[in-house]
Amino acid sequence: MDIRLKLLAIFSSIGVLILVINLVRRRKLREEYSLLWISFSFFLLIITIWFDITLFVSKILGILNPNNTLFFFGILFLIIICLQFSVKMSELTNKLKILTQENVILKAKIKELLKDFK
Q1: Which has the closest alpha carbon to 67: 16, 9, 11?
Q2: Angle ∠(18,23,27) on CA atoms, nearest 5
Q3: Phi, psi (degrees; rounded to nearest 5) at 27
Q4: What is the DSSP secondary-structure string of 17-44?
């Protein structure tokens, strides 16, 4: 592996790790999301430092250039992140629908109580 690419991958994974920890510390990122980012940073760091693992995985996957294995896992990670956010958005959409329905029901009950009160 080219030393420049190796250094870039090492510094990038360390940078992402520091950034994620800092965001969690400042309460800008929730812990549930940080675990995936931290895991990916460690994974990228490990397969970059021990390039033999990258060669082995490349051979198993049939990827000719081991550097493409790093990019493959990066793209795979982004797909997983998109899937996780889609699931979370679906959950929040369902919760919002339920809250809206409950709000309408409560407003109707308040209106009815006020009508009876007058």
Answers
A1: 9
A2: 150
A3: 60, 35
A4: HHHHHHHHHTTSS-HHHHHHHHHHHHHH
* pLDDT at 48 exceeding the cut of 90: no
Look at the pTM and tell me if it is higher than 0.90: no
Residue the block writes with tokens 């990038």? 12
Query: What is the radius of gyration, based on Cα positions, of the chain?
Result: 24
User: Would you say the C-alpha torsion 60, 63, 66, 72 has a positive or negative sign?
Assistant: negative
Sketch the domain layout of the chain as residue ranges: 3-86
| pLDDT tens for each residue of 67-93 | 888 889 889 989 999 998 999 999 999
Distance, in Å, from the CA atom of 96 to the CA atom of 29, rounded to the nearest integer, reads 21
Whole-number Cα distances in Å, 90 to 16, 51, 73, 82, 114: 27, 39, 26, 12, 36
pLDDT for res 73: 87
